[in-house]
Amino acid sequence: MELLTDHRAKPAVPFGGSYRLIDMPLSNAHHAGIGDVWVIEQFHPASLADHLANGRPWDLDRTHGGLLTLHPHLGTEREGWHQGTADALWRQAPLIREFDPDHLVVVSADAVYALDYATVVDAHAEGGGDVTMVTTRRPIEEAGRYGVVEVGSGNRITDYAYKPEKPSTDVIASEVFVFRPSALLDLLGKLAADETEEGLRDLGHEVLPRLVADGGARDYRLDGYWRDVGTVPAYLESHLELLEDEPAMRMDDPAWPILTRGGRHAPARLIRGAEVADSLLAPGCEVAGQVERSVLSPGVVVEPGASVTGSVLLHDVVIRRGARVHGAVVDTGAEIGVGATLGAPPGDRDAENESADTVVLVGAGARVADGASVAVGARVPNESA
Fold this sequence. Notes:
With 385 residues, this protein is of the alpha/beta class. The chain folds into two domains: 2-231, Spore Coat Polysaccharide Biosynthesis Protein SpsA, Chain A; 269-380, UDP N-Acetylglucosamine Acyltransferase, domain 1 (3 Solenoid). It has helices spanning 23-31, 46-52, 85-91, 93-99, 117-127, 140-143, 181-193, 207-213, 232-241, 351-354; strands at 14-15, 19-20, 36-40, 66-70, 104-107, 111-113, 131-137, 147-151, 157-162, 171-179, 217-221, 226-228, 269-270, 275-277, 280-281, 286-287, 290-292, 295-296, 301-302, 307-309, 312-313, 318-319, 324-326, 328-330, 335-336, 341-342, 360-362, 367-368, 373-374, 379-380. It has a six-stranded parallel sheet, with no helix packed on it. A hairpin with a 3-residue loop joins strand 1 (14-15) and strand 2. Helix 3 (85-91) crosses helix 7 (181-193). The protein starts with 13 loop residues before the first strand and ends in a 5-residue tail after the last strand. Residues 273-359 form the Glucose-1-phosphate adenylyltransferase/Bifunctional protein GlmU-like C-terminal hexapeptide domain. One of its GO terms (molecular function) is nucleotidyltransferase activity. Residues 4-243 form the Nucleotidyl transferase domain. Keywords: Glycogen biosynthesis, Nucleotidyltransferase, Transferase.
């Protein structure tokens, strides 16, 4: 995610105008009736803590149970920084054992999807395995970025390869897992006792391959929309997918709305002369120019004569008069000066640029000077860089 995570945790990255990435798993847990949710924090915790608001938007601000935030700590043999998901779970293992859950649902917060975790838990309990992996399909050329699985009869996972160079299938683990707690924690303890210099790291390095080899892994296929947004191009593409005539996922689906902390801005304002098409405008936006196929977060200003196409503008971005923004992700508080140009319309890009990373990324608080031209695929550092 490059500049987008220089100053915030990845789960705190804004998405869809009014949301944050962590809103997806928290909303899924709420709708599934899961009332005990633990968030493991490490990097830039303040960027996430304010948004979580003690779990209130997801009905997790309870006297008993609800939201619990876990941090790296000192004072025990499990102290220190988390070196990955598996390592973080091992460090929190005594607390998990004390809580004694029937099932342990482990999810990441860097993907966009809607899923009833309760149905996965039910399938896991019925299957009787040590782990149930929620899987989905991605193009084979992308599969090597993930854990690739092979599935046999009875939904049993027969092979798991973590980020292989040559994927054997297009079926990948979506980073949503349901574990039998004792199986996971016992295995983490054994692996920690034999720990190498690299440590436990992520679940895909040792834990999942061991559980698959022991025959205890089951598959739960997610056929609906799922999009990993761990790269800048994927982040922009997933926003544009929200703007399709019939999007595969709607953040405001009445049957499964994504919940978030809100209520801080007035309605969006369109000034006479504004032209907006196929776009999402969050509360607090003020648009006097042209906006097409773009997503604007709260507080964005687009001045008269400015145009924004195929872009994502995060909180409080200002596009000055006459500026042109094409195929860009502009981070919080950045300002694009009078008459400046970011990127180029798709028809104006040459073949070399079309095959490269074509997303312009402007860091938080950066200022692009009046009349400046920023090339396709360029990076403008954060203000403090």
